[in-house]
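ok so for the tutorial part 2 we go from a plain amino acid sequence to predicted structure tokens. step 1 is just haveing the sequence, like this:
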Amino acid sequence: MLPILRTLAQDPLQRDAAIAELRKYSLLVRENQTKTFSMHRLVQVVLRDSMSEEEQSQWAKCAITAVYTGLCTAGKSPTLLPSHTCPRYFLHVQTCLQAIKKWSIVSDESAHLLHLMGTHLHNYARTPHPESTAALSAALIIETLEEYVALLQAMNRVQEAEELRGFAEIIRKNRSSNI
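step 2 — the prediction. this is what the tokens look like for a chain of 179 residues:
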């Protein structure tokens, strides 16, 4: 952990002051409904550029664990996630996917994350979402599932990879039969 972040994590007054300063300039936005923060991309770039490659890899591993934990918590179990939340997590998982590739992260959390999101993408694709402007296209879901399959195979998670490959095929067939 970066020294400044360690200090902020340990001192609530300094943390609150830092958050207030970042919010003052819209570099950090509090999402009241989800009780989360969104950080401006510029802040992310500055933080990332100030880290060594080893620190970046460590933070990527922490992020993967955090996103996986968030997915499990949102669904109240590691296998169930309400389909309307899929788009909310999709970009986070895509970022984790990039980190997994970049840092060759092979861990149970990364494999479970990819499998879990692949399962949810499959379920999401099968559920109509006419009211959602964030609906994901079948082509994007298929492409993402295939990326997950390749990574799971590289991680020697063959059974999970085959399940996701099957999901991608089902979506592909449904898509072609609706055309």
